[in-house]
Structures are given as structure tokens and as C-alpha cells.
Amino acid sequence: MAQFFMKRKKGNRMNVAKKSKDALFDVAPKKNMTQRNPWLSAFLSGILPGLGQNYNGLLLRGLVYLIGINIILYVGLGYLYPSIMQVPDSPLPISFWQILSSTVAVLIFFYIYLHCIMDAYITARTINKSLASINVSQELRFTKCRKCGYDIGSDAEKCPVCGVKHEGGFNFGYIAVIGVTVIAFSVLYPLFQRPLNKILESERFPVAKKLEKTFDDNIEQHYNKLVSSFNSKRYDKALEILELFSSSERLDYKDVKSIYTKTHIATLEKQNSLIPQSNVKEKLKIYKQLLKFGPHNSEYQNRVRYYENQIEREESDLALLRRRWYLRSGLATVEGEVKNISKGALERVQVIITWYDNDGNMLTSDSAFIEKDPIFPEHTSFFQVIKLYEPSMKTAKIEFKDMDGNSIATYLGEQ
Questions:
Q1: How many other β-carbons are positioned within 10 Å of the β-carbon of residue 195?
Q2: 350: Cβ–Cβ under 8 A, 6 or more apart, which residues?
């Protein structure tokens, strides 16, 4: 047994630099090197890539990580974006190529960043194990064989009695390092997002300025494509190009603004032709949008009024067919006719008349029941309200209520 462990210690002392399953890069401990904290090493590399490697005594490797990540940032953000964006054949060069290049740069950056953190953590553990094996005076540690229960060295690969391998369980430390890194990034990213956006928009950073310059350099080419698409009635294509002009705030270029209005009107009219007449709400929505592009168009104005009345009628229970008020023998008389446009009979319907003066101040009111009770669907009924006349009476308001005093939705039409 003693010979077995002495053989193990001798092998560890002479072959420290051999491959280890616990490290991405194997490290031979240097003279006077002390134990390293793996978590502290990973934390330092998470703050600044390469700092954890320097803490482990690997200055050159830390420098390689630091330079590598900075190159990815420079190439990905400072060089790759503008060079790809300047492809002249693409009608939408900004959105597509920006997504592609940013995705590639972010994936490479995170791969190197996580690799750096894991390397710092695993290397620190490897250094600690190597130092423990080299220190002959350190007391040997034993563990129980999971099969036969025999005491074996904690660093033994297999039990000398039963031969069962002891490779150790799954190392949750690696998962913990990745989890801590993801949490730290999710917390720190919102803090740096706004400053990063300011840098991207500043004059010192060339990306935004080069993108604007690229569009301005090719603005005539985009304009010719826009005119061609509009004349050939390819309005979907024209809208895509107009979006470029709008995002670049260049709708004032030549007659782009006029094409912008005409294209939207043509697109909305095409959508309107596909909507059935029974879909009143969608018709109203389309004509309201058309009215924004043609505010003085009488047809759009009339259509909006018509569909608004249709919606009001659909949501009403009564329709006021006619009304009038007149003065006779010192009495103010209001009379008219209503129609039940609901799906059920209406009982004890009363009409309330309120009179106002020239300034809109309420003077008096009176009420009466309509002639028919109940009034069935699609039936009409006459009503009349009489009140002693006052010289200040100028206008009258009509409303209808049920037997419980609740207002009945009434369609007034064009009256």
C-alpha cells in the first residue's frame, strides 16, 4: 500500500505538466507559488479578461486573452460594420447586414469571454492540486472506495483491491462559474447600454457616420429605384425604400414626400377594396387613415361620417326618424317618430325633452311615454311632449329612457 502511494507521489512530482482532465491548459507550478482561489481568479477574469490569468501567474496568457477580446471588439464594431454596410447591390443594406455582422461579433466575443473565465477558474484548481502533490510533507488524504469500502488515496485513479475507477463526480463548479458570469452580465449590461449607445452615435465612433454617408452617397440610386417601383405599381417595394428615406430623414429629397403620400394612399385604397362592406369598423379605420394623407378630400370626409353613423346605428336600440318643435297657443310642443332597431321589444319607453337658452343654460324639462307600449322590433311609434312656453326657450334636447330610468342608445342620423 505504501509503495503504491509513494509511486503516485513520485509520478506527480515528475510529471506535473502532463494533461489533466480538470484543466483546459495544464500549468506547472512555479517556485514559491502559493495556493490560488479559483473563484477569485474567475471573478477577476469576469471583470477584465486576462486579469484572472495574471493572478494565477500566467502573464503571457492573460495578455493574449486581453488583446484577443479587444481585437474582436475593434474588428466587429469599428471595421466589420461599415465595410459590410457599404454593399451597394442590397436595397436594404443596413438592417440585414447589421444583424448578421453583430450576431457573429457577439458570438465570438462571448465564446472568448466565457473561455477566459473558465480557464482562470480551472487553472487555479490545477495549480492547487499540483502544489498539494509536490508538497511531500503534506499529510496524505484518504477516501472510501464506493464499491468495497477500502481506504485509498484521494488522488488515486482506481481502487487497488477491486479495481473500480475513482474519477470523481460531476464538477458543478464549472456550471457555477458560467451561472455567475451570466448573472453578472445581465446586471451590468443595462448599466453600460446607454453609454455604449452614446459612443456609437458620437462623432468619434465611425460606424453611425459612415452609415449615413453611405445612404447619402447612394441616395440618387435609391431615388431611381423608388420612382421605378412606384411607376410599376410595386407599392410594397416602394414602401421599403421610403422607409430608408424616412429613417434617414430625407423625405425632402426631390419629390419623395409626394411619392410617400401617393404610395400610402394607393396601398390603403387597395386594402380597402379587399374589405367587405359589412365590415364597417375596418372600413372606418381605413378611411380615417386615408383622411390623414388627404385631409381636404371630400370623398374621404363623407365616408368617415357615413361609417361613423353606421357604427352608431349598430350600437343603438332606437332610431329617431323625425322630430320638430313649435309654438302654439302659448305652448312649446316637441313631437316626432322613433323606430325600434334592436332585436327585442322595448317597454315603457319615455321621451325626455330639455330646453335651453341662447347661452346653453338649462331652463326646464318635461317627459312623456311614446305612443306604443311595447314597441316591437322594426316598429315605429309617435311621441309628443308639451310644455308651457317661456320666451328664453331657444333649443331643445331629446333623449329616451326605459322604465328603470336607464338611457336608451338612440341613433340620431344626420339630424
A1: 9
A2: 367, 368, 369, 370, 400, 401, 402, 403
**Is the Cα dihedral 252, 256, 258, 264 positive or negative?**
negative
Residue boundaries of the structural domains of the chain: 2-138+170-183, 217-313, 317-411
What's the whole-model pTM score? 0.43
Which CA distances in Å does 121 have to 100, 133, 196? 32, 19, 29
> Which grid cell is 67?
488583446
Phi, psi of 400 (to 5 degrees): -125, 145
**Spatial contact of 363 and 332, defined as CB atoms under 8 Å apart:** no
CB within 8 Å of 177: residues ≥ 6 apart: 42, 117, 118, 121
Of 86, 77, 75, 72, nearest to 200 by C-alpha is 77
Q: Are both 217-313 and 317-411 of the same fold? A: no
What the block records as the C-alpha cell of 326 is 313649435
CATH, domain 317-411, list 2.60.40.10, 3.30.1360.40, 3.40.50.970, 2.130.10.10:
2.60.40.10
CB 116 within 8 A of CB 65: yes
* Residue 400 · residue 410 · CB < 8 Å: yes
Q: What pLDDT is attached to residue 340?
A: 94
Question: Could you give the C-alpha distances from 289 to 235, 247, 300, 312, in angstroms and in order?
Answer: 17, 21, 9, 20
Ranges in the chain, pLDDT < 50: 1-26, 79-95, 136-139, 168-174, 203-209, 211
Q: Please tell me the class of the 217-313 domain.
A: mainly alpha
Give alpha helix (H) positions in 15-135.
Answer: 38-47, 51-55, 59-73, 81-85, 93-134
Place of cell 372600413: 283
Residue 164: all three cell numbers together:
473500480
Selection from 311, 317, 301 nearest residue 279 by Cα: 311
Whether 286 contacts 275, CB under 8 Å: yes
pLDDT of amino acid 24: 41
